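User: Some background: our group keeps a shared notebook of sequences we're curious about, and every so often someone picks one and asks for a predicted structure to add to the entry. Today it's my turn. The entry only has the sequence so far, pasted here. Could you supply the structure so I can complete it?
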Amino acid sequence: MIALAAAATAAMTPALAQETATEAAAPAVGDFSLGSPDAKVKIVEYASFTCPHCANFHATTFKELKRDYIDTGKVHFTLREVYFDRYGLWAALIARCGGEMKYFGIQDMLFDKQKEWAAGESPQQVVENLKTIGRAAGLEDAAMDACLNDVPKAEALIKQFQTNFEADGVQGTPTLFINGTKHSNMAYADLKAILEAELAK
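Assistant: Of course. Here's the predicted structure to add to the notebook entry:
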């Protein structure tokens, strides 16, 4: 896990990758959520910022889910990031760079513009594409550089991802857990039927 994080970050800053052997305590990382924590229905989505199916889910089903259930207090939604590749990890570091206040706004842009930013011809171009999204969200270059070069945080995120991914038996993305029951990707009509059934209990 540490080797993966170091390799992912080393592509941008080789010098910093040598610092991964330090024994500093791992930074605390967690998931970001939307909606009322007291909502009767809890949804956890496993998603990768480089997954086309996840981008489609967020462009369609998620927007309706947010409007009808999250914003109305019926559903509490949590996103759990999946890192299938270094680009997905870097995107997560940019999304997290603005903190909880900006996370979901940047997340929306990452999914909406996935085809553009992820298609960079080199890792350096992908980084610049991601920073363009970050700038649009009001992030400063210096802050984004610090976030992208935070090797201990990258390692902690990968460890958290692998622990959750394996514990929940996730095999692909997007995967939804609705009140603890696992579901694969689905259309909004199907999701709505499940949510209404849960709310009626």
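Suggested note for the entry: The longest strand covers residues 41-47. The CA atoms of residues 5 and 176 lie 26 Å apart.
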